[in-house]
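The material for today's practical consists of a large collection of protein records. Backbone structure tokens are a discrete shorthand for how the chain folds in space. An example says more than a description, so a record of this kind follows:
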Amino acid sequence: MKPFIKGSYSDEDVIFLLQDISGYVDEIATPEREVLIQSGVHYSEMLPVEYQPTEEYVALFKETLKDSASRIALSTAVVAEQIILEKRKNHQDDLDETLRDLVLVSLARAGTPIGVLIKRYLKQVYQVDVPHYSISIIRGRGIDEVALDYIYQQSESANIQFIDGWTGKGAITKELTEACDEYNKERRLKYPLYPTLAVLADTGYCTTLYGTREDFLIPSACLNSTVSGLVSRTVLNDRYIKPGEVHGAKYYKEFEAMDLSNVYIDTVMSAYDKHKEQIAREVKETLAVWNPDEVPSWAGMAAIEQIKEDFGYDSIHFIKPGVGETTRVLLRRVPEKLLINPEKTNDLRHILMLAKELHVPIEEYTKMPYSCCGLIRQKVGEKEI
């Protein structure tokens, strides 16, 4: 097995259980990649060319981060406390045992900075250094079981909590549920894998562990590798990944001078330090009305089906809802148009900036719980529909 990739975070913050394939995998330009995806090549078999932000865009990221840091800190605290409350059910409400067995597992790569924030929060508030790994999960291909096996080799009593940045349609939520069921069937674990995903923002209404359900701008959604430890999205291609090996990723050494990964983490944690008493009060108020037994409504998926009908799309895979997913459409795919919900007042300046830069049309649309939605152009390379 090739060595694990070393991102720009410290090992104390996260261990990437991804093999370094930097010297093997090439990046493919967005239009060519879109043609390949729509012709049946799986998105995980290749990497897009990483977007190199303009100075204006980076300045907007920094401004947004400064303005939203305390809100991110609050959402981090809320979801971290929810994780503890959920995991205490496995330990007869014993907090010390809960924290001793807890292992954070972020879904690379959007989950990684959120996992780092939760780990930092737990260390600061509970004085416990919870293990944190980042592993791959791929829609249609499942979770990296080799990486999970490695985690259990380190601790047979690991009580794993999966973490991501946000929910969109809920595709990864469903993928994770199926993957956990399969993994649990084949192994005898002290604590079976628990598929409920912990996220900063549950905009799709498909989990019970979330900092907020508002579709607001999470600054780490603005950028790609330069806010995620300089690590690419994950790759599963049998040209590079052999049986028994973890999934792969590329390290972007060429972007080291532009890396904002640790700036992001430090800024949010500084905001927590500054507002910790107020955040503690708001966390208590939020948890008082939180229902861990709630059945998620999946309101996001209902909205996606409506968008599919209204705009004549063949598949919901062309519809990417929420601030985070819309940003991904603009940075990685070939967008047809953007839907903006004027009833949502969240700051979408970075999305509007990218849309202008890429000449993507914008249309107002209110029949969704999201602030915005990105629509991918169908049949790229053929006559447009």
In short: The longest helix spans residues 55-88. The two ends are 45 Å apart (CA to CA). Residues 183 and 243 are 17 Å apart (CA to CA).
